[in-house]
Amino acid sequence: MTTETKKIEQSNTYNVIDSMGRPTSIYIIASNIKEACVEAKKRQAEIGSAYYKVKRAYNGGVRG
């Protein structure tokens, strides 16, 4: 009898904030903030600036 363990990952939504503090229309789906920052670094040409923040976007969900 084998037991399988499944890794449960969250899928959180993160928003990119530009250098002026305005939220952009770029949303990243990742399981944690580190993964979101790595994805934002890959999409830096789309962001258009070297200075930005990644912030979690609370958009309701199961727990509201």
Written overview of the protein:
- The chain has a domain at 12-54.
- The protein has 2 helices and 3 strands.
- The chain has helices at 33-42, 44-47; strands spanning 12-17, 23-30, 53-56.
- Strands 2-1-3 form a 3-stranded antiparallel sheet, with helices on one face.
- The radius of gyration is 15 Å and the shape is elongated.
- The model has no long low-confidence stretch (mean pLDDT 84).
Topology, please?
Elements: E1 12-17, E2 23-30, H1 33-42, H2 44-47, E3 53-56
Antiparallel strand pairs: 1-2, 1-3
Short descriptors:
3-stranded antiparallel beta sheet, alpha+beta, single chain, 64 residues, elongated, 28% strand, 22% helix
Short description:
By secondary structure, the protein is an alpha+beta fold. It has helices spanning 33-42, 44-47, and strands at 12-17, 23-30, 53-56. Strand 1 and strand 2 (23-30) form a beta hairpin.
Morphology call: elongated
The string of secondary-structure elements, in order, is EEHHE
Low-confidence stretches: none
What's the overall average pLDDT, rounded? 84
User: Helicity range of the residues?
Assistant: 10-25%
Provide the spatial order of strands within the biggest beta sheet: 2-1-3
Number of strands: 3
- Please summarize the sheet with the most strands: 3 strands, antiparallel
